[in-house]
Amino acid sequence: MSPRPHVLVFMFCMGMALVLLAPLAAAPPKGAKKDTVEVAVIAILATDRHNQINPKLDCIARQVRKTRKELTGFQLATMTSQPLPIGVSHVFEVVGNQKVGVTVLRGADEKDRVQVKVAPPGMGEITYDTCCGKFLPIVTEFRTKDKELLIIAVCVRPCHEK
């Protein structure tokens, strides 16, 4: 006994649907979170002894000066970038044998916000949500032998494409 024609058509359509839709099921959805992100950590040395501001730090200097008006000079000490898997900690060396621990807890969400845990020198861990692609400055209490104050700033990328 041979199968009915409508059963053959149904089986053919199901087979074609499987062939056409299988690659879509295997591919991550558009906008899915990536497993690895790029983390950048910069170390800034701030002082009240001069008023030279590295042009690249102008925006950060303005933000810091809102709460620390005595700081007038801002210089870039180090800049390090490292790809990190989500949830994995990495220690970045900055200045004066100081270290900064960074863990990206969540990559960019639908609003392009990331969640980061940072362990700055001489401070406890700080967990915060911030805009993807923006540096968040953290003023530490560490001072160099020249009495310059260490500020660290952390940035996470990639962000969602617009």
Describe this structure in words.
It contains 2 helices and 8 strands, in the order H-E-H-E-E-E-E-E-E-E. The chain has 162 residues and is an alpha+beta fold. It has one domain (36-157). Strand 3 and strand 4 (99-106) form a beta hairpin. The longest helix has 22 residues, at 5-26. The N and C termini lie far apart (58 Å). The model is unreliable at 5-33 (pLDDT under 50).
Structural class: alpha+beta
Main-sheet strand order equals 2-1-8-7
Helical content band: 10-25%
Gross geometry: globular
E-strand count: 8
**Arithmetic mean of pLDDT:** 84
Beta-strand content? 35-45%
Q: How many separate helices?
A: 2
Number of domains: 1
Largest sheet: 4 strands, antiparallel
What distance separates the N and C termini? 58 Å
Rg, alpha carbons: 25 Å
Low-pLDDT residue spans: 5-33
SSE order, one letter for each helix or strand: HEHEEEEEEE
